[in-house]
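Data card: per-record layout.
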Amino acid sequence: MANVVKSVLVKAPVGEVYEFWRNFENFPRFMENIESIRVTGADESHWESKGPLGKTIAWDAKTTSVQENKKIAWQSTGGTIETHGAVTFEEVGSDQTKVTVGLEYTVPGGILGEAVAKLFSNPETQLEEDLNRFKNVAEGADWKSMTSGAPAVGEGSYTNSASSAQRSDVKGDVVGSGSGATEDGATRSTDS
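The structure for this 192-residue chain is written out next.
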């Protein structure tokens, strides 16, 4: 099983950052490879990601821990990818939040596994870029409209309609990085 941990500082209050992240359907807005997320139950969701050769990679996930303004953890429950992890939120000032994402994943064997492995060929860079896009969204002018009245887990779905070029045209700085280690309980997230 491989793992990666990355953090980013966001100039926004911890409550707003948490509420935006808590709505998983926001993820395609800043995660380049995520095509759609559909919430299927109170703590369950169905994820679809870009795969090689135009194929879609799909899996289901269960939210295993929710600690308001502090942590959201998940674990896959079926599909192509086995993954678990967490995102933690730390207030580092009245309007600044440190967001740390830790994830662990295992790709399947065989030809499908080779294709999925190519998708995750550089997970540290991918996570860093996704967090920089999140920072850009969180610090952007549209942030307030996206956080007010946003549906919580269990409501609706969202499909990524932005092009890769639109999503990758962001700038920001990821603070801290690492691979193979845990940070603030971000990995091994099935523990509350």
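Known properties of this structure: Residues 2-152 form a domain with the Alpha-D-Glucose-1,6-Bisphosphate; Chain A, domain 4 fold (CATH 3.30.530.20). The longest strand covers residues 56-67.

See the next section for split statistics.
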